[in-house]
Design goal:
Its cofactor is Mg(2+). This protein is an alpha/beta fold. Helices cover 43% and strands 11% of the residues. The chain is built from 14 helices and eleven strands. Helix 2 packs across helix 3 and helix 7 (93-100) packs across helix 8. The protein starts with a helix and ends with a helix.
Length: 308
Protein backbone atom coordinates (compact mmCIF):
# COMPACT_ATOMS: atom_id res chain seq x y z
CA UNK A 1 0.00 0.00 0.00
CA UNK A 2 2.84 2.38 0.87
CA UNK A 3 4.64 1.70 -2.42
CA UNK A 4 1.49 2.16 -4.51
CA UNK A 5 0.73 5.51 -2.89
CA UNK A 6 4.34 6.57 -3.23
CA UNK A 7 4.35 5.72 -6.95
CA UNK A 8 1.01 7.49 -7.47
CA UNK A 9 2.12 10.81 -5.98
CA UNK A 10 5.55 10.55 -7.63
CA UNK A 11 3.72 10.44 -10.98
CA UNK A 12 2.04 13.71 -10.01
CA UNK A 13 5.51 15.23 -9.50
CA UNK A 14 5.80 15.40 -5.70
CA UNK A 15 9.06 14.56 -3.91
CA UNK A 16 9.49 11.26 -2.08
CA UNK A 17 10.57 12.96 1.17
CA UNK A 18 7.42 15.08 1.36
CA UNK A 19 5.24 12.05 0.59
CA UNK A 20 6.90 9.92 3.26
CA UNK A 21 6.48 12.69 5.86
CA UNK A 22 2.78 12.99 5.14
CA UNK A 23 2.29 9.21 5.25
CA UNK A 24 4.08 9.03 8.60
CA UNK A 25 1.83 11.74 10.03
CA UNK A 26 -1.47 10.47 8.61
CA UNK A 27 -0.72 6.75 8.61
CA UNK A 28 -0.33 4.26 5.79
CA UNK A 29 -4.09 3.72 5.45
CA UNK A 30 -4.85 7.41 4.82
CA UNK A 31 -6.94 8.21 1.75
CA UNK A 32 -5.27 9.78 -1.26
CA UNK A 33 -7.47 12.87 -1.01
CA UNK A 34 -6.27 13.47 2.56
CA UNK A 35 -2.64 12.95 1.54
CA UNK A 36 -3.01 15.40 -1.35
CA UNK A 37 -4.63 18.01 0.91
CA UNK A 38 -1.79 17.63 3.43
CA UNK A 39 0.84 18.03 0.68
CA UNK A 40 -0.83 21.23 -0.51
CA UNK A 41 -1.13 22.50 3.08
CA UNK A 42 2.58 21.88 3.67
CA UNK A 43 3.34 24.03 0.64
CA UNK A 44 4.83 21.17 -1.31
CA UNK A 45 4.79 21.70 -5.07
CA UNK A 46 5.43 19.34 -7.97
CA UNK A 47 9.03 19.27 -9.14
CA UNK A 48 8.13 20.94 -12.44
CA UNK A 49 6.70 23.97 -10.62
CA UNK A 50 9.68 24.14 -8.25
CA UNK A 51 12.12 24.17 -11.15
CA UNK A 52 10.17 27.03 -12.72
CA UNK A 53 10.11 28.98 -9.44
CA UNK A 54 13.88 28.64 -8.88
CA UNK A 55 15.82 30.08 -11.84
CA UNK A 56 19.18 28.58 -12.63
CA UNK A 57 22.27 30.70 -11.92
CA UNK A 58 23.60 33.07 -14.58
CA UNK A 59 26.23 31.72 -16.94
CA UNK A 60 29.11 33.96 -18.06
CA UNK A 61 29.97 33.87 -21.74
CA UNK A 62 33.38 34.94 -23.00
CA UNK A 63 33.50 37.97 -25.27
CA UNK A 64 33.80 36.99 -28.89
CA UNK A 65 32.47 33.51 -28.24
CA UNK A 66 31.13 31.83 -31.36
CA UNK A 67 28.37 30.04 -29.45
CA UNK A 68 25.12 29.96 -31.42
CA UNK A 69 22.85 29.50 -28.40
CA UNK A 70 20.27 32.28 -27.95
CA UNK A 71 20.64 34.85 -25.19
CA UNK A 72 17.71 33.43 -23.26
CA UNK A 73 19.67 30.26 -22.48
CA UNK A 74 22.62 31.98 -20.76
CA UNK A 75 20.45 34.58 -19.03
CA UNK A 76 19.21 31.93 -16.61
CA UNK A 77 16.04 30.70 -18.33
CA UNK A 78 15.27 27.01 -18.50
CA UNK A 79 15.59 25.36 -21.90
CA UNK A 80 12.28 23.53 -21.54
CA UNK A 81 10.46 26.80 -20.80
CA UNK A 82 11.97 28.54 -23.83
CA UNK A 83 11.05 25.76 -26.25
CA UNK A 84 7.80 24.44 -24.82
CA UNK A 85 5.32 27.28 -25.35
CA UNK A 86 2.22 25.07 -25.17
CA UNK A 87 0.07 24.61 -22.08
CA UNK A 88 -0.14 21.29 -20.19
CA UNK A 89 -3.15 19.15 -21.05
CA UNK A 90 -5.27 17.32 -18.45
CA UNK A 91 -7.92 15.04 -19.98
CA UNK A 92 -11.05 13.82 -18.21
CA UNK A 93 -10.72 10.21 -19.38
CA UNK A 94 -14.18 9.06 -18.28
CA UNK A 95 -15.90 11.99 -19.98
CA UNK A 96 -13.98 11.52 -23.24
CA UNK A 97 -14.43 7.74 -23.32
CA UNK A 98 -18.18 7.86 -22.62
CA UNK A 99 -18.65 10.65 -25.16
CA UNK A 100 -16.93 8.58 -27.85
CA UNK A 101 -19.06 5.57 -26.90
CA UNK A 102 -22.33 7.56 -27.18
CA UNK A 103 -22.76 7.42 -23.38
CA UNK A 104 -23.33 3.66 -23.59
CA UNK A 105 -19.82 2.17 -23.81
CA UNK A 106 -16.57 3.25 -22.16
CA UNK A 107 -14.60 3.59 -25.41
CA UNK A 108 -10.86 3.75 -24.69
CA UNK A 109 -10.21 4.51 -28.35
CA UNK A 110 -11.71 7.97 -27.81
CA UNK A 111 -9.01 8.66 -25.20
CA UNK A 112 -6.34 7.56 -27.67
CA UNK A 113 -7.75 9.87 -30.36
CA UNK A 114 -7.65 12.84 -27.98
CA UNK A 115 -4.08 12.07 -26.85
CA UNK A 116 -2.89 11.71 -30.45
CA UNK A 117 -4.49 15.03 -31.41
CA UNK A 118 -2.54 16.93 -28.73
CA UNK A 119 0.65 14.99 -29.47
CA UNK A 120 0.53 16.05 -33.11
CA UNK A 121 0.27 19.68 -31.99
CA UNK A 122 3.48 19.27 -29.97
CA UNK A 123 2.18 19.15 -26.39
CA UNK A 124 4.68 17.38 -24.14
CA UNK A 125 2.71 17.27 -20.87
CA UNK A 126 -0.47 15.20 -21.31
CA UNK A 127 -2.23 13.47 -18.40
CA UNK A 128 -5.39 11.35 -18.52
CA UNK A 129 -7.29 10.53 -15.31
CA UNK A 130 -9.43 7.37 -15.15
CA UNK A 131 -10.91 5.62 -12.06
CA UNK A 132 -8.98 2.55 -10.94
CA UNK A 133 -12.00 0.25 -11.16
CA UNK A 134 -11.88 0.59 -14.96
CA UNK A 135 -9.02 -1.93 -14.79
CA UNK A 136 -11.50 -4.62 -13.78
CA UNK A 137 -13.09 -6.92 -16.39
CA UNK A 138 -16.08 -5.31 -18.12
CA UNK A 139 -19.59 -6.11 -16.94
CA UNK A 140 -22.98 -5.83 -18.58
CA UNK A 141 -23.89 -2.67 -16.70
CA UNK A 142 -20.49 -1.03 -17.49
CA UNK A 143 -19.14 -2.24 -20.86
CA UNK A 144 -15.61 -1.25 -21.89
CA UNK A 145 -14.17 -1.30 -25.42
CA UNK A 146 -10.44 -1.52 -26.30
CA UNK A 147 -9.37 -1.85 -22.67
CA UNK A 148 -5.77 -2.64 -23.68
CA UNK A 149 -5.29 1.03 -24.63
CA UNK A 150 -5.39 1.95 -20.94
CA UNK A 151 -2.44 -0.34 -20.22
CA UNK A 152 -0.42 1.15 -23.10
CA UNK A 153 -1.08 4.74 -21.96
CA UNK A 154 -0.17 3.82 -18.39
CA UNK A 155 3.19 2.44 -19.57
CA UNK A 156 3.81 5.75 -21.36
CA UNK A 157 3.18 7.65 -18.07
CA UNK A 158 0.22 9.44 -19.65
CA UNK A 159 -2.67 7.70 -17.90
CA UNK A 160 -3.10 8.00 -14.12
CA UNK A 161 -5.63 5.91 -12.20
CA UNK A 162 -7.54 7.64 -9.42
CA UNK A 163 -7.73 5.36 -6.36
CA UNK A 164 -10.67 3.14 -5.40
CA UNK A 165 -11.11 0.14 -3.13
CA UNK A 166 -13.73 -2.31 -1.87
CA UNK A 167 -14.99 -2.23 1.72
CA UNK A 168 -17.25 -5.15 2.71
CA UNK A 169 -18.09 -5.83 -0.91
CA UNK A 170 -18.90 -2.19 -1.71
CA UNK A 171 -16.68 -0.09 -3.97
CA UNK A 172 -15.34 3.14 -2.45
CA UNK A 173 -14.39 5.51 -5.27
CA UNK A 174 -12.45 8.76 -4.85
CA UNK A 175 -13.73 11.82 -6.69
CA UNK A 176 -11.66 11.86 -9.88
CA UNK A 177 -12.91 15.30 -10.97
CA UNK A 178 -11.13 16.88 -8.02
CA UNK A 179 -7.84 15.31 -9.16
CA UNK A 180 -8.37 16.67 -12.68
CA UNK A 181 -9.06 20.24 -11.58
CA UNK A 182 -6.27 20.28 -8.96
CA UNK A 183 -3.56 19.07 -11.32
CA UNK A 184 -4.66 21.39 -14.14
CA UNK A 185 -4.79 24.34 -11.72
CA UNK A 186 -1.33 23.63 -10.31
CA UNK A 187 0.17 23.14 -13.77
CA UNK A 188 -1.65 26.20 -15.19
CA UNK A 189 -2.90 23.97 -18.00
CA UNK A 190 -6.11 23.17 -19.87
CA UNK A 191 -8.92 20.80 -18.86
CA UNK A 192 -10.34 18.71 -21.72
CA UNK A 193 -13.90 17.77 -20.85
CA UNK A 194 -17.55 18.47 -21.62
CA UNK A 195 -18.33 18.57 -17.90
CA UNK A 196 -18.78 22.01 -16.28
CA UNK A 197 -17.70 20.89 -12.75
CA UNK A 198 -20.33 23.11 -11.12
CA UNK A 199 -19.89 21.50 -7.70
CA UNK A 200 -16.15 22.25 -7.74
CA UNK A 201 -16.79 25.81 -8.95
CA UNK A 202 -18.90 26.43 -5.85
CA UNK A 203 -16.24 24.82 -3.68
CA UNK A 204 -13.38 27.19 -4.54
CA UNK A 205 -13.63 30.67 -6.16
CA UNK A 206 -10.17 30.30 -7.74
CA UNK A 207 -11.25 27.04 -9.33
CA UNK A 208 -14.41 28.75 -10.59
CA UNK A 209 -12.40 31.29 -12.59
CA UNK A 210 -9.96 28.63 -13.77
CA UNK A 211 -12.69 26.27 -15.00
CA UNK A 212 -14.49 29.09 -16.79
CA UNK A 213 -11.32 30.23 -18.58
CA UNK A 214 -9.43 26.94 -19.15
CA UNK A 215 -12.14 24.38 -19.99
CA UNK A 216 -11.78 23.02 -23.53
CA UNK A 217 -14.90 21.28 -24.84
CA UNK A 218 -14.87 18.95 -27.85
CA UNK A 219 -16.87 16.76 -30.23
CA UNK A 220 -16.28 13.48 -32.02
CA UNK A 221 -17.11 13.56 -35.74
CA UNK A 222 -16.59 10.23 -37.51
CA UNK A 223 -13.91 9.07 -35.04
CA UNK A 224 -12.22 12.46 -35.27
CA UNK A 225 -11.48 14.49 -32.15
CA UNK A 226 -12.53 18.09 -32.86
CA UNK A 227 -12.26 20.93 -30.30
CA UNK A 228 -13.84 24.27 -31.31
CA UNK A 229 -11.85 26.99 -33.05
CA UNK A 230 -13.28 29.53 -30.57
CA UNK A 231 -13.24 27.82 -27.14
CA UNK A 232 -14.48 30.94 -25.28
CA UNK A 233 -16.94 32.19 -27.87
CA UNK A 234 -16.84 34.47 -30.90
CA UNK A 235 -15.08 37.33 -29.12
CA UNK A 236 -12.60 35.12 -27.25
CA UNK A 237 -9.14 33.84 -28.23
CA UNK A 238 -8.54 31.40 -31.06
CA UNK A 239 -7.76 27.74 -30.37
CA UNK A 240 -4.03 28.29 -31.00
CA UNK A 241 -3.88 31.17 -28.51
CA UNK A 242 -6.02 29.24 -26.03
CA UNK A 243 -3.52 26.36 -25.98
CA UNK A 244 -0.41 28.59 -25.95
CA UNK A 245 1.32 30.17 -22.98
CA UNK A 246 2.22 33.25 -25.06
CA UNK A 247 -0.70 34.19 -27.33
CA UNK A 248 0.07 35.71 -30.73
CA UNK A 249 -1.85 38.83 -31.68
CA UNK A 250 -3.62 38.63 -35.06
CA UNK A 251 -2.37 40.78 -37.92
CA UNK A 252 -4.53 43.85 -38.64
CA UNK A 253 -6.86 43.38 -41.58
CA UNK A 254 -6.89 46.49 -43.76
CA UNK A 255 -10.16 47.57 -45.33
CA UNK A 256 -9.83 48.38 -49.06
CA UNK A 257 -10.32 51.99 -50.08
CA UNK A 258 -13.82 52.59 -51.50
CA UNK A 259 -12.45 55.10 -54.06
CA UNK A 260 -9.88 52.68 -55.49
CA UNK A 261 -7.46 54.23 -58.00
CA UNK A 262 -9.43 57.49 -57.96
CA UNK A 263 -8.40 58.20 -54.38
CA UNK A 264 -6.68 61.61 -53.98
CA UNK A 265 -5.63 61.28 -50.31
CA UNK A 266 -2.32 59.59 -51.08
CA UNK A 267 -0.29 58.68 -47.99
CA UNK A 268 -2.95 60.25 -45.77
CA UNK A 269 -5.52 57.65 -46.82
CA UNK A 270 -6.31 55.26 -43.96
CA UNK A 271 -7.58 52.50 -46.27
CA UNK A 272 -5.69 49.79 -48.14
CA UNK A 273 -4.78 50.19 -51.81
CA UNK A 274 -4.08 46.82 -53.49
CA UNK A 275 -2.72 48.49 -56.65
CA UNK A 276 0.33 49.80 -54.75
CA UNK A 277 1.17 47.29 -52.03
CA UNK A 278 4.98 47.69 -52.22
CA UNK A 279 5.09 51.43 -52.94
CA UNK A 280 4.99 54.36 -50.57
CA UNK A 281 1.56 55.95 -50.66
CA UNK A 282 2.42 59.41 -51.97
CA UNK A 283 -0.07 62.18 -52.43
CA UNK A 284 -1.09 63.19 -55.94
CA UNK A 285 0.96 66.39 -55.74
CA UNK A 286 4.08 64.46 -54.65
CA UNK A 287 3.63 62.00 -57.51
CA UNK A 288 3.41 64.86 -60.04
CA UNK A 289 6.52 66.51 -58.58
CA UNK A 290 8.41 63.21 -58.81
CA UNK A 291 7.45 62.83 -62.48
CA UNK A 292 8.54 66.39 -63.28
CA UNK A 293 11.91 66.07 -61.51
CA UNK A 294 12.97 63.07 -63.58
CA UNK A 295 13.05 64.76 -67.05
CA UNK A 296 14.59 67.94 -65.56
CA UNK A 297 17.46 65.97 -64.07
CA UNK A 298 17.99 64.15 -67.36
CA UNK A 299 18.19 67.49 -69.24
CA UNK A 300 20.82 68.84 -66.84
CA UNK A 301 22.97 65.75 -67.32
CA UNK A 302 22.85 66.11 -71.10
CA UNK A 303 23.97 69.76 -70.88
CA UNK A 304 26.86 68.81 -68.64
CA UNK A 305 27.98 66.17 -71.10
CA UNK A 306 27.91 68.58 -74.05
CA UNK A 307 29.80 71.44 -72.33
CA UNK A 308 33.30 69.93 -72.42
Amino acid sequence: VHQSKLDFFCKLGYGKQDICKVLENLGQEALEDDVLKELIRMGSKPQALESQAQPSPLKLVARGSCSTSPASKWLGEDDSDSTDHLRPIVIDGSNVAMSHGNKEVFSCWGIQLAVDWFRERGHTYIKVFVPLWRKEPPRQDSPIADQHILEELEKQSILVYTPSRKVKGKRVVCYDDRYIVKVAYEKDGVIVSNDHYRDLQNENPEWKWFIEQRLLMYSFVSNRFMPPDDPLGRHGPTLNNFLSKKPVLPEPKWQPCPYGKKCTYGNKCKFYHPERPHQAQLSVADELRAKIKVPLSLGKEEKCNRSP
